[in-house]
Amino acid sequence: MPLRNRVSRLPVTRRPSPGVSLNAIRIASSGGPEVLRFEDVPTPAPGAGQVLLRVEAVGLNYVEVYQRTGLYKVSYPLVPGGEAAGPVESVGPGVTGFAPGDRIATVNAIGAYAEYALVPADRAVKLPDGISTRQGAAAMLQGLTAHYLTTSTFALAAGHSCLVHAAAGGMGLLLCQLGKRVGARVIGTTSSEEKAALARAAGASDVILYTEQDFAVEVKRLTGGVGVNVVYDSVGRTTFLAGLTCLVPRGMMVLYGQSSGPVEPFDPQILNQRGSLYLTRPSLPHYIATREELLRRSNDLFGWIAGGSLDVRIGAEFPLARTADAHRALEARRTTGKVLIIP
Q1: CATH number of the structural domain spanning residue 104
Q2: Strands 50-54 vs 206-209: parallel, antiparallel or unpaired
Q3: Which of 160, 217, 252, 318 has its CA 20 to 30 A from that of 120?
């Protein structure tokens, strides 16, 4: 069955009203993709400071895998999902700046794996004309993350070099583009030549097939034994220690994910031995903590997309009822670009 699951016919939109049940994905307990159950849930009603979003697209992210498997502690039952876009259906008391019909995107939706979801108004941003709701849902979490990783955590600039793991994934493709955009040298890792071609097209000057080559040895060869200024690592357990050997003295390891599992405890003295290295484990909420910062980063992001200097690749779309299949594809690393769930 092909990975790309375009939704050609969507059901007629059901307007919410008190007491009506709407389709959603709910998790009753931790486990594999099979615990993602397609069920009816009560219609949410916006409270003070909230808007009700009619969800047109949901961005699939690894955080929901971590929540589903129990790696991240959450309370069950749970309707997962935080990254979503669509029009505002209604607003709660005290909400200003948003009105029904406004198209918005957010990474802070409450229960986005559903037809409707609540959103704190101060965590929503309006989508500019020319940016579709699918682009909004695909760009928010990974786009904002790529923005802060390359402008704040380690401010990439011309003359810098970076190593991007999972370079053909949604995040990896954005990092490759943003690195090239400022004139940095981007070295990527992928599992196949097909994925390597995507990374090169996005701006990677060199791509290492980690299934065939030792990426740490190759980085040193490609850089003449010098190494890179920064490693952007979303993989974790299987790449972390080897990634430290890829850095120049006083280089930075940016560990922003753990798709292969959490990094095992290690002696911080290793950072000294490898050249007074820096290590950070950042997360998006700390880089969009204020509304001003959220708007500044999202304005940059959507400006780049609208201007054509940043392409958000949507690799696959799954209908809401097949969310379990979307999780399976993501965990099996059979995806490239961004995966969307369409209610």
Answers
A1: 3.90.180.10
A2: unpaired
A3: 318
